Amino acid sequence: MTLALSHVTKRFGNTVALDDISLTIERGEFICFLGPSGCGKTTLLRIIAGLELAEEGTVTLEDRDLSEVPARHRNFGVVFQSYSLFPNMTAARNVGYGLECRGRPRAEIEARAAEMLRIVALSDHAHKLPSQLSGGQQQRVALARALAPDPEVLLLDEPLSALDAKVRESLRLEIRDLQRRLGITTIMVTHDQEEALTMADRIVVMDTGRIAQIGTARELYDRPASRFVAEFIGRMNVLPVAGGRLAGLPLAVPQGATLIGIRPEDVRLHAGEGPPGRAILPARLTNTIYLGNLAHLVLSVEGIEHEIVAEVPGHACKAIADAPQIGLELPAETIKVLA
Ligand SMILES: Nc1ncnc2c1ncn2[C@@H]1O[C@H](COP(=O)(O)OP(=O)(O)OP(=O)(O)O)[C@@H](O)[C@H]1O
Ligand SMILES: [Mg+2]
Most exposed: 1, 30, 169, 338, by fewest CB within 10 Å? Predict the structure, then answer.
């Protein structure tokens, strides 16, 4: 065990920002806090960093209670959303700043800064000021700065959200790779599910100050514990059922089920009625969103209020769109019963 949160609660006036959060993070793990805006991600990260005080609960590192340990003595590296580099210092001096504060000898600081800049592939930019660096380069400097004092834990609050999509994608893999090589326990806050899915060993899904579910990307995607998680991780068609039936069609679900979910890629479409003996509903195509390699077909079914989205390979959508009749199949093994 390395980092443990136990019953952490935090209020701001009448707002309950965090409600009884308990969580154990193993040494070397990459954890993402994922959730919509305002769910408490930053507050939780700040409590771990020691920048905010929990009202109840404890944070312990290797069984050491951190409650009384001020942020500057926690030896955690922190990177915030907006590049918080010192604008009047070169990249190298920014990276060395943490060691400078600790009064380390100049030669050591310079060597370490050079080493960290090499690790984030910015050796050629050491002498530049932040204003002379691109957004992605600035975030890599911020990462190098956080890592330079060799912290026990790395805390990242939406470090990529200000960057454009391409840079973000490559930095995701860079950070993930660096984290693995250094083996450093890392917590990253994000509201971007794709980011969490590509980077984290485990994802903590948060909903209004509570933990909705903790799991690997696969566990959350395949076995969402609730409608909230199902809709937050990937796309999900959520449909009401009654007495085990959907729009009159009997499904292999418990009689007591009230909501089911089916992923767009699990919906099977047939040009025509489809084969007999399967759970197939007649559907009408209302919209096609062509994305190149794949297409999202929006379908309506009589007796079902919400439209159902099916994802098919891009080349397959024409045959469906041209069919005089469409059969929408819900394969039994792909149906998830939602709480
Ligand atoms: N210093 C503060 N004073 C009062 N309320 C606060 C303070 N900081 C946070 N809050 C409230 O606590 C809740 C959680 O905020 P937090 O910043 O942790 O959310 P978040 O999940 O990081 O959201 P985002 O994705 O938008 O950054 C919000 O309702 C917010 O308004
Ligand atoms: Mg935040």
Answer: 1
